[in-house]
Design goal:
Layout (H helix, E strand, L loop, with lengths): L1 E2 L5 E9 L7 E3 L2 E3 L5 E5 L3 E6 L6 E7 L9 E5 L13 E5 L10 E5 L5 E4 L19 E2 L11 E4 L10 E6 L6 E8 L3 E9 L5 E3 L2 E3 L5 E7 L2 E7 L7 E10 L2 E8 L6 E4 L1 E7 L1
Parallel strand pairs: 12-13
Antiparallel strand pairs: 1-6, 2-5, 2-7, 3-4, 6-9, 7-8, 10-24, 11-15, 13-14, 14-23, 15-22, 16-21, 16-24, 17-18, 19-20, 19-22
Length: 278
C-alpha cells in the first residue's frame, strides 16, 4: 500500500475464511458474524507491506482505503485455490521503498484518465431541445450488462487500471465510427511492445444470455504516415496487460486507436502501455 498524499491514511483489511462470507465461526449449528477487520496507518509519502496470517483457508480479502482519493475505495480479491504454504510467520505492517510503485523508465502508460487520451465521435445533429437539456454532472455511471450506452461512458471497477482512479470507458458495439485514441510521446526510435489493459468485468447472465466485453477488439497503431492494425480476443487474456505485439516505432508521437466495431456486445477502453525493448 502506498500513501502519496501529505496526510495520514488508513487502510482496513478483512479476510473472509472458508465458505463463510462473514468470516465467522460455527457454534451449535449457527453461524456467528465476526468482524475481523484489521486497520493499518500509512504515514504521508510512505509505502507499507502488510502481512496477515490466517488460521483457516482464506476465501477472499477485502481492502478498503477509506477516506482517500481512490475510486473505488474498496477492492475484493477472491482466492479460488491456495497452492502453497510458507514458513514465514511474521505479520503486521512493514515499511518498504516507495520506488516499488514508481513507473519504470522504459515504459510509458497512457490511461483513459490522462491528457493523452481522447474520444473521437462523429458530428451529431442537434435538435432545439438538446440546447436546453441539462448536462449530466455524474461522470461515472453504473455498469449495466443488459443495457449498454450508445456513447462512450466512464465506469469504475477494481479490475480497471488507474491510480488513484480505477476507471474505463465502455459503450455498446457499433459500426466503427465511435473511436478512442491514446497518444504517447516516445523518447527514441526503438522496438516497443504495445499492451492494452484488459479489465475483466464479470460475466453477467440476463434472460438466459451471457454478456461479455471480450472478443475481437481491433487496434490501429499510427505513427508518421504509417498505420498497423491488430485484432485481439480479450476473452483469452487474464485481468491485466494483454500484448498487441512488437513494433518498431519512431521517436515522437505515436497513437493507438480503438473503434467500437467489436465481436462482443460492448467495447471497453482502459489503458495502453509502450514497453521499450532494449
Amino acid at each position: 500500500a502506498y500513501n502519496s498524499s501529505d496526510l495520514e491514511g488508513i487502510v482496513s483489511v478483512k479476510v473472509e475464511e472458508g465458505g463463510n462470507r462473514w468470516g465467522g465461526f460455527r457454534q451449535g449449528g449457527n453461524t456467528t458474524q465476526e468482524d475481523n477487520t484489521q486497520y493499518y496507518v500509512l504515514p504521508p509519502h510512505s509505502a507499507r507491506e502488510i502481512k496477515i496470517i490466517n488460521d483457516d483457508r482464506p476465501a477472499r480479502v477485502i481492502i478498503n482505503t477509506n477516506i482517500s482519493h481512490n475510486l473505488p475505495n474498496e477492492f475484493t480479491y477472491n482466492f479460488s485455490k491456495v497452492d502453497n504454504e510458507i514458513a514465514d510467520t511474521t505479520w503486521g505492517s512493514f515499511p518498504i521503498d516507495t520506488m516499488f510503485f514508481a513507473k519504470r523508465a522504459d515504459e510509458i502508460i497512457v490511461d483513459n484518465e490522462d491528457a493523452g487520451f481522447r474520444i473521437i465521435e462523429p458530428e451529431k445533429k442537434r435538435k432545439l431541445k438538446d440546447y436546453f437539456r441539462k448536462e449530466d454532472e455524474e461522470k461515472y455511471k453504473t455498469f449495466l450488462p443488459w443495457r449498454f450506452p450508445s456513447q462512450w461512458t466512464a465506469v469504475i471497477n477494481n479490475t480497471c487500471y488507474g491510480l488513484p482512479v480505477h476507471s474505463a470507458l465502455h459503450k455498446k458495439k457499433g459500426v466503427g465510427v465511435h473511436r478512442v485514441e491514446w497518444t504517447a510521446e516516445l523518447p527514441e526510435n526503438s522496438l516497443y511492445e504495445v499492451f492494452v489493459w484488459n479489465p475483466k468485468f464479470e460475466s453477467w447472465w440476463f434472460r438466459g444470455e451471457r454478456y461479455r466485453s471480450e472478443q475481437n477488439h481491433t487496434y490501429t497503431i499510427k505513427y508518421d504516415e504509417e498505420e498497423e492494425t491488430t485484432t485481439v480476443d480479450l476473452s483469452q487474456g487474464e485481468n491485466g496487460w494483454v500484448s498487441l505485439g512488437t513494433f518498431y516505432l519512431p521517436k515522437g508521437k505515436v497513437s493507438v486507436v480503438l473503434s467500437d466495431k467489436v465481436g462482443g456486445q460492448f467495447v471497453v477502453a482502459d489503458a495502453v502501455r509502450f514497453s521499450r525493448i532494449k
